[in-house]
Amino acid sequence: MDAPYKPSVKLLFYLSDVPKIIASAGKMTLSHRDVATIFGSMDDTKVVEWIRELVRRGHTSPFEHSIYVFEVVCSRVASHQIVRHRIAGYTQLSQRYSENFLRLFVKSIASYLGREDLYVDSPRNREGYKSYVHLINIFIDSGPEYDTLLDIVSTAFIVPPNVVKNRDRSFLESLVVAVGRYYDVLAKGYTYEDARFLLPQAIKTRLLVSMNARELIESFLPLRMCIRAQWEIRYIAWNLWRQLMEIHPDIFRYIGPRCIHIDSRVRKNLCSLDEYLDGRCSFEISRCPELVDREAISQCLKTTSRDPYEP
Prior knowledge:
Blueprint lengths: L7 E7 L3 H11 L6 H7 L2 H14 L10 E8 H7 L6 E4 L7 H14 L12 H16 L4 H8 L7 H6 L2 H19 L4 H4 L8 E8 L1 H12 L6 H17 L1 H4 L5 H9 L6 H5 L16 H11 L7
Antiparallel strand pairs: 1-2, 2-4, 3-4
Helix pairs in contact: 1-3, 5-6, 6-9, 7-9, 11-14
Subunit structure: Homotetramer.
Function: Catalyzes the reductive methylation of 2'-deoxyuridine-5'-monophosphate (dUMP) to 2'-deoxythymidine-5'-monophosphate (dTMP) while utilizing 5,10-methylenetetrahydrofolate (mTHF) as the methyl donor, and NADPH and FADH(2) as the reductant.
Keywords: FAD, Flavoprotein, Methyltransferase, NADP, Nucleotide biosynthesis, Transferase
């Protein structure tokens, strides 16, 4: 299980027959038979062959006959990037009506201090929010150790890799102070809608995302698995790809950053992402869309596949 300070993604729902549906749709464009007949006659070998050929030719409209629903917990920094992918459905936790992650944050502080008596589970008035501010101030004054600070901050915030690697205490303390100010203005009678202006973009949010395979293989994964993508959304994209590989490897084995996407268009025989990563397959393009020369693309690919939190 990932550390709580990391973003997370979890594939929830999908159509189990998607590979066969996509292969059948692709074959239908060239066949005199109806889709039901094609689907019934499509064996596993043919499914693999048709999907490989569709990917190689860039004929991806059949991939729209699919749906993948996944839940993402990330910062507001990353969520703003995710929702820029137009061909998708989104539902996001509202900051106007909920501060669920922040309540968990305060509850963790109360538990650490042994002051559960000051914690109000569902504050309905200014006094309840004042007790939250009081708890946060006690916590700051107690001078918690770095690891304790990280554990508590992680209940409500995504923490960047460099902060974790550098054990940057002041960065974490700034997040704690911001929450104190947030609850301070709520105690003064401000609404969630206005108080949220004080919150850092590192605050956790939750999204339910629906994408079809075409959006995933043509846009989201190639763009967001790339080394040029922001580290958080890149981390999400790679972890989503790994989960997609567990259920539909026939579709997603050839998918990766844009260098893979472009190289697949010029190759006679496709290579899987794993084959590129372990050196069994070399790039044929002279350079990638980010202007990395052919000789350096493989190392770039290995770098972008790594967990940004690892040394």
